[in-house]
Amino acid sequence: MSSAASNIHIRTASPNDAAALLAIYAPYVRETAITFEYEVPSTEEFARQITHTLKKYPYLVAEKDHTILGYAYAGPFHERAAYDWAVETSIYVDQNLKHSGIGGLLHDALENALKKQGILNMNACIACTPTEDPHLNNNSVEFHTHMDYRLVGEFYQCGYKFRTWYNMVWMEKQIGEHLTDQPEIRKFRDIESDICYRKFMK
Q1: Does pLDDT of 67 surpass 90?
Q2: Nearest to 148 by CA among 171, 182, 118
Q3: pLDDT (tens digit, 9 = 90+) per residue, 92-142?
Q4: Is the per-residue pLDDT at 87 higher than 50?
Q5: DSSP for 98-151, written as a single string
Q6: Pick from 97, 69, 114, 110: nearest CA to 197
Q7: Cα–Cα–Cα angle for 143, 99, 9, rounded to 5 degrees
Q8: First and final CA of the chain: distance in angstroms?
Q9: Which of 62, 69, 121, 151 could be 86's S-S partner, Cβ–Cβ 3.0 to 4.6 Å?
């Protein structure tokens, strides 16, 4: 584990974290095609998203010395009830701390929480490119492959940003047993107290 990923504490996000999280996310909007979003959301929008997500799913932050370094959350893969056991996941790390291990710590904590909820499938929608450029490489695909995701589909030239057409892939990781009589999932707040987010020490 790198020194940047030592002494990291994972905790549940709160709407009060919105400004700090937005400071991490905004450069991804302005400078990269990692997100296909064009406009940086407001702090109020971010706070509302955190509140809305936590009604059902985890929204986690990684911090060190009271400074937030990255965040991860899950949302519905699809709104219809049959998809309740699948989620779409997102992870963002301060761009100055890429490849430091923080993304992996956040992913592990997110996966642990989702397992306790009874979620079975983690899905990631990832921008990708056949030719790397200043706005996009395929590090996110490589990260998810390292986290044991498999590629399940690719859409070609479906995202347009910075006067460039990009592809998008879906990757998936199954984290639970699929049963004939599947128990209903639990809300994150119902299992949050069962989770012990340990401090990750060097």
Answers
A1: yes
A2: 171
A3: 999 999 888 999 999 999 999 999 999 999 999 999 999 999 999 999 999
A4: yes
A5: TTSSHHHHHHHHHHHHHHHHT--EEEEEEEE-SS-BTTB-SHHHHHHHHTT-EE
A6: 110
A7: 100
A8: 7
A9: 121
Strand order across the beta sheet in which 8-12 lies: 150-161, 164-174, 121-128, 86-93, 67-76, 59-64, 8-12, 199-200
Residue at 67: amino acid letter: T
Q: How many residues does the chain have?
A: 202
- Token pair for residue 58? 């985890």
Tokens 């929608």 identify what position? 125
Say which amino acid occupies 84: D
For residue 166, give the nearest of 69, 53, 4, 36 by alpha carbon: 36
49: three-class secondary structure by DSSP: helix
Structure-token pair, residue 41:
């959301």
Q: How far is residue 123's CA from residue 108's CA, in Å, rounded to a whole number? A: 14
Per the prediction, the chain carries an average pLDDT of 94
The amino acid that residue 144 corresponds to is H
